[in-house]
């Protein structure tokens, strides 16, 4: 069973920084990609950032230039460095990992979520 464990959320003042981590269990041979979604109260979940196995990254327009996604393949871990945080970044952040399956395609696994709160 694949498990994703998140850490690093918390409370920070506007303009501050946080670094989220998401570690996948070590019984994994390959990961196609990992990333982060967030869900603010009363809003739909939105994709924040992704990184694929080749290293290419993508970001939601609202976080470009402020957030950086990176990964440590040896540790099956993805990070989200969040700088210049704003109140509109307040949300529960969920990491995910897309793993290949034997029959082709991939399966997505989710972390438990971590709260990010920004005080103004």
Task: Give an account of the 3D structure.
With 120 residues, the chain is mainly β. It contains no helices and 11 strands. It has strands at residues 4-7, 10-13, 18-24, 33-39, 46-52, 57-59, 67-72, 77-82, 91-100, 106-110, 114-119. Strands 2, 4, 5, 6, 9, 10 and 11 form a 7-stranded mixed sheet that branches. Strands 1-3-8-7 form a 4-stranded antiparallel sheet, with no helix packed on it. The radius of gyration is 14 Å and the shape is elongated.
- Characterize the quaternary organization of these chains: single chain
- Structural class, please? mainly beta
Number of DSSP helices? Answer: 0
Mean pLDDT: 95
Helix percentage? under 10%
**How much of the residues is beta strand, in percent?**
over 45%
The whole-angstrom Rg is: 14 Å
Reported for the largest beta sheet, the result is: 7 strands, mixed
The termini sit apart by 40 Å
The total of beta strands comes to: 11
Pattern of helices and strands = EEEEEEEEEEE
Shape: elongated
Low-confidence sequence ranges? none
């Amino acid at each position: 069973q694949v498990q994703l464990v998140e850490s690093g959320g918390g409370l920070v003042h506007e303009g501050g920084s946080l670094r989220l981590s998401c570690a996948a269990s070590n019984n994994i041979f390959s990961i196609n990609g990992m990333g982060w979604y967030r869900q603010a109260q009363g809003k739909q979940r939105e994709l924040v950032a992704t990184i694929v196995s080749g290293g290419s990254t993508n970001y939601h327009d609202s976080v470009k230039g402020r957030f950086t996604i990176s990964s440590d393949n040896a540790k099956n871990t993805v990070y989200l460095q969040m700088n210049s945080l704003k109140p509109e970044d307040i949300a529960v952040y969920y990491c995910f990992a897309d793993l290949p399956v034997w029959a082709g395609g991939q399966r997505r696994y989710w972390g438990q979520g971590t709260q990010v709160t920004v005080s103004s």
